[in-house]
Design brief:
There is one protein chain. With 246 residues, the protein is an alpha/beta fold. It has one domain: L-arginine/glycine Amidinotransferase, Chain A (5-stranded Propeller). Helices cover 20% and strands 23% of the residues. It contains 7 helices and 15 strands. Strands 2-1-15 form a 3-stranded mixed β-sheet, covered by helices on one side. The relative contact order is 0.18.
């Protein structure tokens, strides 16, 4: 079967390649056992400890042909040039302080972009305004971290700003904040611990049944024709998003 790049966050068949942090060996092994190749993120030492390897801080998958990458991610740029027609390098250098650390942190869903637009790198801003994408502007700069994509018209978040902003364009499930581990931080986020592994399967980096909103999450996803898959047995772990690209 031919493998090809699909719309961001919405694979229409089994995923064969992802961009993700490789610092969690048990998770790496599980994903590789599923026949998925891992393109590793880089250690960006300008960022806070718990952000340094996060994929959602390093790349923004815009459409089938285009991906944006931090200036600092030289190896990742070279990897992605093998698969994308357009690999666009960020105009700005990343900085530790928010909001200058979230240059890549947006969510592309079909022709819609969920983001805090003025936080995105200017290279991304220029493209999304030029192409007249529907921009769903939020007060949350860590947008990709905070959004779990269920389908082309459904998302899950614990962020009230995203919930309020996205309701006109998506069916949105608002869950309780917390209950997701992120080493060296108080807690992680639902977008950082989940990704679509197939058209109708949403995978989680831990056991989704341990989350107190599990039943609501399960029912919401089933309503959109999506089943849940727990990759590991422990609590959900925010690994900085797992971004499928092939």
């Amino acid at each position: 079967m031919k493998t090809e790049i699909f719309n961001p966050n919405l694979p229409d068949r089994r995923v064969k390649m992802v961009v993700m942090s490789t610092i969690y060996q048990n998770l790496n092994k599980k994903i590789e056992e599923l026949g998925i190749k891992i393109i590793p993120t880089e250690n960006i030492d300008k960022l806070l400890t718990f952000e340094r390897y996060h994929a959602d801080m390093q790349i923004f998958h815009y459409d089938r042909e285009t991906v944006f990458v931090l200036q600092e991610c030289k190896k990742l740029q070279n990897y992605l040039k093998k698969y994308f027609k357009n690999v666009i390098i960020a105009d700005k250098k990343i900085l530790k302080k928010y909001p200058y650390n979230v240059l890549m942190n947006g969510v592309s869903i079909c022709n819609k972009i969920i983001c805090k637009a003025n936080c995105l790198d200017t290279s991304i801003q220029n493209i999304i305004f030029k192409n007249k994408n529907i921009i769903i502007n939020t007060n949350q700069g860590y947008t990709k971290c905070s959004v779990c994509v269920v389908s082309d018209d459904a998302i899950i978040t614990s962020d009230k700003s995203i919930y309020k902003s996205a309701q006109k364009n998506f069916d949105v499930l608002l869950i309780k904040p917390g209950e997701i581990e992120l080493p060296f931080a108080d807690y992680g986020f639902i977008g950082g611990c989940s990704f679509k592994i197939d058209k109708n399967i949403l995978a989680f980096t831990g056991n989704i049944k341990l989350h107190s909103d599990y039943e609501r999450i399960k029912d919401f996803c089933l309503n959109h024709g999506v089943n849940l898959l727990s990759l590991l047995n422990g609590k959900l772990l925010d690994v900085g998003s797992i971004i499928p690209i092939k």
